[in-house]
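quick one
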Amino acid sequence: MSTLDIDRIRRELPGRSILYYATVDSTMRAAAGCEPGTVVLAEEQTAGQGRHGRSWHSEAGSGIYCSVVLEPKPALTLALGLATADAIARATGLACDLRWPNDVMLGGKKVAGILVQLADGNAIGGIGINVNHASFPPELASEATSLRLETGAPACATGILLALLPAIDTFVEMDGDTILRRFARASSYAAGRRVTVEQPEGTIEGTTAGLDPAGFLIVRKDDGTDTLIVAGGVRAAGS
Ligand code: BTN
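structure w/ biotin:
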């Protein structure tokens, strides 16, 4: 089953270097070593990578599995999350939330994820969007959703991708302060949200208190002290 109309994508976005695979282990691996600007797309990944060494569920023909070769810059993960939410909104009308740093959320569940890796002096920006999944494996079902599951109707992956690539161009061009401001405005997790965070030394609970100038999340514990969260693991408290 094919999700992406690759001929239309190439026609409507001329001049882009787009590598397209029916099946690949990971678009992150395929993008490593490619020129900046290269886009790698796949219908299916057999070894899709998530953050922190996790795998990314990459069912054939149901999702967008995309990596883009970019110049490294601050707050890139946040910029790509903003671009993904923007593309979903433009293509479907759905308003996503952003859970710092890399989760794109709908109805309290994760609909897309961002992974940024450095390779050969470039940044590989990986974006996975759950588009037409009808269900998820039991271990993901309480955490993951798809656009189709949220609306009850199939979504057009090609249309989302045609919105996504220009949105990436727009957001990665923004300076770091603008990205942080836009993220803080778009994310219900950035400030005033009761959260738990898994840290190496244990789980902490507190209320989010904005982003620091480097884009890290500040969590204020009930004793009034602030902890700077640098690596994710953020969950809505009680979820
Ligand atoms: C996460 O939320 O853990 C990040 C998920 C990133 C998944 C995408 S799918 C396209 C690209 N190729 C991969 O192997 N991973 C990223």
